[in-house]
Specification:
Rossmann fold, alpha/beta
């Protein structure tokens, strides 16, 4: 059943197979796991006279008359080429049903036949209508979708609800007996979980609301259980891997600490202690270091790089942008400019690699890495090219983990015979529920405090009619010697009149603030242009950076204390919080100003209210997850992990905890999944 191609189901020809493939359905298993996202209650017939505008209902009535209108080419609109109309009648009244571009219905629906239709009642110039209702000739009610609780699927263009239900029904009838339940029998028995065959039937074609809920809970549990099985398998395998123990002498630690010029915060000190303890072990560290922008994660990572260098091994520091790469490169050179013997050659042993380097420059770096003469490398995606070979890689540090994905982390950290220690960092606070489901194989360190003297930015949310006030406030801050960012959601002009674009507004900003020499900054610029623009901004040759969210990562300029966000309703909460962190870099008071449209949806208003009232990144992350869902929250973060089709770790936290506990027991008792009762788990993981 698992690998049977979808084309073997009757009615799925090459065209429909291609449409199914586009939404990730290639096999019968994929189809059966394509669940309805909501249900319609079609169990109760209504009389025509009792229908209400805006209400969904199912009606069974006789076809009184039909009519088809076909428009000649010169009268056709872009979308409507024909209209088929049918007047239905029961003992209480008449109902008009209208279908667009379905002229073939004239052959299927004839006067005198009894028709069952399901739709929403609309009011139009011609009176009340069902527009494009689902229908069934009442003598043919053999589909499990009719006269019952009916599933509604996300239907791409080329597939309608009726066909999806028909093909799912056929798949269940043909293949349900071949289903092997991936959940072990003893777990289903202990937790009173519905078996797989019954669950497929009830989630697609529920016999009751109670059974539908039970089936959905079963599949939510299944998803979370297997996500946790994967997590604990990775963790178990890691413990059996070998790594080099990295240690740092107390004098060398003190030399680094003294050179910082400030005291570590309590959060930094704890994180450093946890990291150094991990890398001293003979199996690889896998630790996630979380903390808001500006909390000092890079400093914590620097101690591990120092331990690696002092132990004679190589360290790789991977970052998402070239600007951030140069920033970390300079930070590390400054930290390790020491007289201590262990670090005396550090400056000549660290290099940076990015895609903008020439081929000749890259070849020199490849050679030095393979020979082991280059000890520390900072780079972007260029670090995971096949040509990059290390002689003795001891440590991998990955900044902004959510921008790389699990697969790339694994690619970089699994190239050596001895597995390197791995530290991944994120300034995007990850809710505990997602951290458990996605990063449960990593140990967690959190830096919650900020360096002494840092003040949280004052967040001000205003509407479009206060723009002049914002500009006056901005001018005042600039004249006092500060710098500012103005951030736009799009680069080019948009058909949406309320959506401000960078290029259009840059001209107005330049005219209004010409004395402060605004500069444009966005992702389409060449790397050389970006670096030049940031250099000018850092040197105060320019005082305003008019940008897209490309500044979200890596732009660290202490004198920039004002950020204006245009159309903040277009951004996610986590992204707004990340942007706000860019101006929390000094002891000066910073200001985060949001200019939104006058009219906002309830959801958008709530998000802006949250960002205005709290600075706690974890609270913000939880709210963002609630409003956007786990898929949108991290995009391709889950790459390399089981897809979450139906589960939401925040909503389903109780089930996640149950699934996690059971998965832990399974892997602890049978880390190789060799027991007979666990063969179904193995089969599911391998298909």
């Amino acid at each position: 059943m698992h690998k049977t191609p979808i084309r073997y189901l009757k009615g799925v020809g090459p065209r429909r197979e291609a449409v199914f493939n586009k939404i990730g359905i290639f096999t019968v298993k994929d189809l059966l796991y394509y669940f309805p996202f909501r249900y319609q209650d079609r169990r109760f017939l209504k009389k025509i006279s009792t229908l209400r505008i805006g209400e969904f209902a199912v009606v069974r009535a006789k076809v009184k008359t039909t009519n088809i209108k076909k428009f000649p080419y010169f009268l056709r609109s872009k979308k409507i080429k024909s209209i088929f109309e049918a007047i239905l009648e029961d003992e209480t009244g008449f109902l008009e049903c209208v279908w667009f571009n379905q002229a073939y219905l004239a052959e299927a629906i004839k006067p005198g036949e009894e028709l069952t239709v399901y739709g929403k009642l609309y009011f139009s110039k011609k009176g009340t209508q069902f527009i494009s209702p689902e229908y069934e000739i009442s003598g043919n009610l053999d589909s499990p979708a009719e006269a019952k609780i009916t599933g509604v699927y996300h239907a791409p263009e080329g597939l309608n609800q009726k066909f999806i239900r028909k093909i799912v029904s056929a798949a269940i009838k043909q293949y349900i007996s071949k289903c092997i339940d991936p959940l072990p029998f003893y777990i289903r028995q202990e937790k009173n979980i519905m078996n797989i065959a019954k669950s497929f039937e009830e989630i697609h074609f529920p016999s009751s609301w109670l059974k539908a809920a039970a089936a959905r809970e079963r599949f939510i549990f299944e998803e979370l259980f297997f996500s946790q099985i994967s997590v604990f398998l990775r963790k178990a395998r890691r413990i059996f891997q070998k790594s080099v123990s990295l240690k740092i002498e107390q004098d060398d630690f003190k030399a680094i600490d003294d050179n910082l010029g400030f005291d570590l915060t309590a959060g930094q000190a704890k994180a450093v202690s946890q990291i150094l303890s991990d890398i001293a072990k003979p199996y690889p560290m896998h630790r996630l270091l979380q903390g808001d922008v500006g909390c000092g994660k890079t400093i914590a990572a620097a101690f591990s790089i120092g331990a690696c260098y002092a132990s004679g091994l190589q360290a790789a520091f991977m970052v998402p942008t070239e600007i951030l790469a140069y920033q970390h490169f300079e930070t590390l050179r400054r930290i390790f400019k020491l007289k201590a013997m262990a670090f005396r050659d550090f400056e000549s042993s660290i290099k940076i690699i990015t895609s903008s380097l020439s081929r000749k420059e890259k070849d020199v770096i490849y050679e030095d890495l393979s020979r082991g003469t280059l000890k520390v490398i900072v780079g972007t995606h260029a670090l995971i090219q096949e040509k990059v070979k290390f002689k003795n890689l001891g440590l991998v540090v990955i900044d902004e983990q959510h921008r790389f994905g699990v697969a790339q982390r694994a690619l970089l950290s699994n190239r050596e015979a001895l597995s390197p220690h791995c530290l991944v960092m994120s300034a995007t606070p990850i809710p505990r529920s997602l951290a458990l489901s996605l990063y449960g194989d990593l140990d967690l360190s959190v830096i919650k405090d900020m360096p002494q003297g840092r003040k949280p930015p004052v967040t001000m949310w205003v509407k479009e009619d206060k723009r002049q006030w914002v500009y006056d406030f901005l001018e005042k801050e600039l004249k006092s010697g500060h710098q500012a960012y103005i951030v736009y959601p799009v680069i080019d002009d948009s058909p949406d009149e309320e959506l401000k674009s960078l290029k259009v507004m840059f001209e107005k900003i330049t005219k209004r603030f010409s004395e402060f020499k605004p500069r444009m900054f966005h992702g389409r610029m060449k790397n050389e242009e970006k670096l030049t623009t940031i250099k000018e901004f850092r040197e105060k040759k320019s005082r305003i950076l008019v940008s897209t969210t490309v500044i979200e990562v890596g732009v660290d300029i202490k004198e920039a204390t004002v950020m204006v966000i245009e159309s903040p309703e277009r951004f996610g909460l986590a992204q707004l919080h990340q942007l706000r962190g860019r101006i929390q870099r000094s002891e000066e008071q910073a200001y985060f100003v949001l200019i939104s449209s006058k009219e906002l949806s309830e959801n958008a208003s709530e998000r802006l209210r949250v960002i205005s009232q709290t600075h706690d990144g974890f609270v913000i992350a939880e709210e963002d997850l609630k409003s956007r869902g786990p898929g949108d929250f991290f995009g391709n973060l889950q790459h390399g992990l089981p897809d979450l089709r139906i589960a939401n770790p925040l909503r389903d936290m109780d089930l996640l905890n149950r699934a996690r506990s059971l998965a832990y027991k399974v892997i602890k008792s049978d880390p190789g999944l060799n027991k007979k009762e666990h063969s179904c788990i193995n089969e599911h993981l391998n298909n």
